[in-house]
User: Fold this.
Amino acid sequence: MNPVKPVPVIAIHGGAGTIARAHAGHGQAAAYHAAMQEILLAAQQLLGAGGSALDAVSLAVDLLEDCTLFNAGRGAVFTHEGTHELDAAIMDGATLRAGAVACVSRIRRPLRAARAVMERSEHVLLVGAGAEAFAQACGLEQVAPDYFSTDARRAQLQRALLADVTLLDHDAPALSFGTRSAAPLDEDRKLGTVGAVALDAAGNLAAATSTGGMTNKRVGRVGDSPLIGAGTYADNRTAAISCTGTGEMFIRSVTAYDICARMAYAGQSLDAAAQALVMQVLPAIGGRGGLIALDARGNLSCPFNTEGMYRGHARVGQTPQTAIFAE
Ligand code: ASP
Assistant:
């Protein structure tokens, strides 16, 4: 019997969080939907033309990093010292090869640097100045650190400094002062991070994640996004996963890998495993956020334990779907 060929699919996320009360149901929801649609269409086209899952997640995250609506690349949040430290990772489900960078502030496209680590070094994770030197040697574009700065993020840091809290981009304690943007998820209470998972026509899975981390985070802090198995994982035998949320809890519960382990060892379905992590395991240790997960048959699961998560998916030959709040 010939195995049924999978329909290629791309899924993306742009962070999870809390509805911006002042703008619930209004805000710039249309701008977020439009940005996600455009990114999905580009990746869908690539997959439809026979492109690989790895190239599809790379393209989607490139575009998400460049879009200032999301906390990754340009528009990244500030550390406590008013600097930027970006993290990114990519994984190939066919070979279990992976690459990541952490605490970089001069690489324009951190996900491309992560892919270079995977393809052009014998390592998996490079950090700080060493990662930047490697990226430069690979010919990747360097920028002055203030390239990533936006006025909105600077104002967000000022509010966090005044309140003396560490803000996850989409989900920190409410601050009742300062200017609010018209984003549908409260920018001071939103978990940042962007990510993508894809399945290609050859049946290969890939995952990629990129983030600015948390507003007011300690310099040198690394979240779950660049840690293989925590915020990012892909294995053709089980699933491809990209997470967004309170990174420390995602690291402690090894979220992405645990979903694959539950599928492999306990025979759980993708959705059962993903729901268990997001609705039980993470909340039990105070973890908030969500994830996108895709298995090799094209099943998709996008659970989140916050009020909303920017997300969308596109199967080749079908209209892209995007959503922000719970259905
Ligand atoms: N998980 C990311 C981190 O902890 C933050 C986020 O998703 O907003 O760095």
